[in-house]
Design a protein that fits this description.
two-stranded parallel ribbon; 15 helices; 2 strands
């Protein structure tokens, strides 16, 4: 029946098949000489992952533990205290409810007045009633739209939004955190004054963790009067270690440009923290301990650049995740 459909299948008698006797064909890893060793290795790996998972919790979950010497260390740590300075995440569903009508007004201009996107008159959109965080979000989203859909220069985009009083507020840190690594935030940063914004260091730390050096450099120039090495608060170096990666991005993506950008950003930060070393604290060691426990190659890449971070054990590791 299959042959009438043009499908030919070669049939081989099972008696003619030569059995495989070379065990190296079964596994290319000579480390495992039998199934028991492979199972033991997998069991140890699983135990390590469980241990790591148990040491990484939100501040709220750490609060649920009964007092002990270890829990006392966690609750007195800079990682635990840092969560008090992190702004609550933005309620996007609530914000979108207010921004959707504004975008609708812009679309109506395009359809009824036969305009190109760069001809949209933002001054016709009433934003005076908006809360600050909604206005900041709309400003950054419209900046993105002009970048993508017009031929306006960056300065012209800034001028257009400024004329419409659509200027991001540096105090809206929860909104700005959503645009780390994005060009629309990078455009506005030099025009924003963060000197009297208490949570600005949170934004700076996320820039270090996400390895976006241009944004970090702009904001850091305003915040250099802060002392990060006192041991009282987490510093950008800690967050850079947390986010550090020298993995070849081509394993995950064929986008060579993305890989080159990521590598270049990492190098900028490595050079910066080499030229501006900080006093190594226990929280820095805990950050590198996570890499050592999870991926030895990553840990080796870190201490290659920062040998002062070399550690012998990961036993004291814990992590406090902020909401």
């Amino acid at each position: 029946m299959l042959s009438r459909q043009g499908i030919e299948i070669d049939v081989v008698d099972s008696k003619e098949i030569v059995p495989v006797t070379d065990s190296t064909l079964i596994s290319d890893n000579p480390k495992y000489v039998n199934d028991d060793e492979l199972l033991n290795e997998n069991a140890l790996c699983n135990l390590k992952n469980v241990w790591l998972h148990q040491r990484k919790k939100t501040k709220q979950l750490w609060d649920e533990f009964a007092p002990s010497a270890f829990i006392d260390v966690v609750k007195k740590s800079p990682e635990y205290r840092y969560c008090d300075s992190v702004p609550a995440k933005l309620d996007l569903s609530a914000v979108v409810k207010f921004t959707a009508p504004l975008f609708q007004q812009a679309r109506e201009q395009l359809s009824t007045q036969q305009q190109t996107f760069e001809q949209i008159d933002l001054t016709q959109i009433n934003v005076s009633h908006l809360k600050s965080d909604v206005k900041t979000l709309f400003s950054l989203l419209m900046t993105k739209e002009f970048i993508s859909n017009s031929n306006l220069a960056e300065s012209e985009i800034i001028e257009k939004l400024t004329d419409a009083k659509l200027i991001p507020n540096p105090k809206d840190i929860a909104v700005l955190l959503m645009f780390v690594k994005r060009k629309n935030l990078t455009m506005w940063l030099p025009l924003m004054d963060f000197t009297d914004v208490p949570q600005a260091h949170v934004l700076l730390n996320v820039m270090a963790q996400e390895a976006t050096f241009k944004q970090f450099e702009i904001l850091n120039s305003q915040l250099q009067h802060h002392e990060y090495s006192s041991g009282v608060s987490l510093d950008p170096f800690y967050f850079f270690i947390r986010g550090f990666s020298e993995l070849d991005f081509s394993f995950f993506s064929a986008d060579e440009r993305t890989k080159n950008i990521e590598n270049r950003e990492q190098k900028h930060f490595i050079r910066y923290f080499t030229e501006h070393p900080v006093t190594i604290r226990e929280f820095h060691r805990r950050a590198v301990a996570e890499h050592k426990a999870q991926l030895e190659e990553q840990y080796q890449a870190i201490i290659k650049h920062f040998p002062q971070l070399e550690i012998d054990t990961v036993d004291n590791f814990f992590n406090v995740r902020c909401p």
